[in-house]
Amino acid sequence: MTSRRQLLKSAVLGGGATVVAATAMGSLGAEAAFGAAAPQVEPGTPDPDFAEGRIRSIKDNTLLVLGSNLVFRSIRVVDGTSLWKLGPVGFDQAKPGDGLYARGVRMPDGVLAAESVWLNIINIKGHITNITSEKIHLDHHGKEILCHVVPGRSVAIHSDAPASADLSLLRVGQHVQILGAWRPDTNEADIATVFSPH
Amino acid sequence: MQGIVALQPYVIAAFLAWAAVLKLFSRRMRSQAGQTALARLVGPARAIPLLRLVGLAELAVAAALLLPPSSPWEGTAAEALSLGFLAYLGYTAVAAPASSCGCLGAHAQPVNVRGFARAGLLLTMSLAAIPAPPFRPDPPHLLLGLAEAVALLVLSPELDRHWLTPLRQLLVRLRKPLAVPDGREIPPEVSLRLLYRSPAYCTASARLTSDVQDVWEEDGLRFVSYAAGARTAVFAIPLSGGDPSAVRVALVEEPAPA
Questions:
Q1: Does B83 share its domain with B127?
Q2: From the candidates A4, A8, A75, A131, which should be mutated to test the interface with B, based on the most B CB atoms within 10 A?
Q3: For chain B, is the Cβ count within 10 Å smaller at the N or the C terminus?
Q4: In the listed set B166, B198, B218, which residue is the last one of a domain according to the structure?
């Protein structure tokens, strides 16, 4: 892992021989975005390269996931798969019971080879009913959700300002949007980012 | 005991009169009548006339309770009204759990246990008021009446923004539950947000096929790698400073570890 990091570091800082393109070379131009083919999915049909649901079991590098449509999907996680659980994490953090969204490539045998997996990710809006030690009580359509502040992880973004680890500007009564990780089978979540309109 | 009983009509009457005034004269109440459970029960078009009707009934019962002569019928009327409230709340909890009750002005909170407790307290007080002996004021009974009025107000979620929210804001200001000690590490999310706003990310984002694969810190920089098809995209983000244009990117012909 260290040697790979060294290789990538030397590439981005200059001096790496294996660099295909850097911003100075122009080939990463914005026009590339328009050249890329959009994924072709028929409107109204499920995207075959996407899966969601909750992990029922984990065997080797394959997750067996029960979707909300009650259909099982197998999701294969490889070394290049990115996993998110309140931030980038390793495969060992995936546990049975976790909810997930996964994107990747559907293989001929029906298994989804995942490029990205987001575990327990939630994105909710509501207003703050109370703030206690390291906790924000959120009223989300009349239901209370207890959002935990995780030191070294949680950040707040006020309007267009840069993200900050300081959450002390949040006020009781104000409206917020919270991106975080649900704690399975509870009404609690860990905060990744709090978006505040002001 | 007589004094407690004799006091009840006044507390009930004051509360009912207030609820009636809000229903009859609050413009905000009328504009939000469509969101109450009443609108679900009788249809949005009939919600406002029905709210007014309930307000008039409350006002009539309040007037009867306040004005002499007192008779057992007054307490019975208040009890019937409270029973009606309880039945309505029960219906709301079952049929429209997301709707507000519209009891005491407009607000967005669904019916919860506090609403039931308030209607239950009103019912108990109405039952106590039925014997209706003449009232002679003395301090202990007045205090009890005051306590009952406060209990009714505390059980009203409509009023939370006038006392509960400011109280919690004050406590937060005093206790500072989210204050951060100095010298903490910079969360990775701070670097990622800077990355998303950078020209380097804008030019490369169309190539990225995964979310963050690896994050590490070295020499005051935070390195973040993504899969970009068969290649790897690596970004260098300064840990200090907020200038997005300082972010650098390289696309490396090194396949993502497979």
A1: yes
A2: A8
A3: N
A4: B166
pTM: 0.80
Residues B237, B195: contact at Cβ < 8 Å?
A: yes
As for the ipTM of the complex, it is 0.83
| CB crowding B228-257: b at 16 or more within 10 Å, else e | beebbbbbbbbeeeeebeebbbbbbebebe
Distance separating alpha carbons of residues A29 and A33, to the nearest angstrom:
8
Residue of B187, B190, B210 with shortest CB distance to A80: B210
For each of chain A's 198 residues, which pLDDT tens digit applies? 678 888 888 888 875 445 555 544 334 444 444 445 556 778 888 888 999 999 999 999 999 999 999 999 999 998 889 999 999 999 999 999 999 999 999 999 999 999 999 999 999 999 999 999 899 999 998 889 999 999 889 999 999 888 988 899 999 999 999 999 999 999 999 999 999 998
Is the residue at B182 inside a domain? no
Burial class (CB in 10 A: 0-12, 13-18, 19+), A132: middle
Tell me the pairing of strands A62-66 and A50-59.
antiparallel
Phi, psi dihedrals of residue A11, rounded to the nearest 5°: -65, -45
Best B252, B253, B254 member to test A by mutation, with max A CBs in 10 Å, is: B252
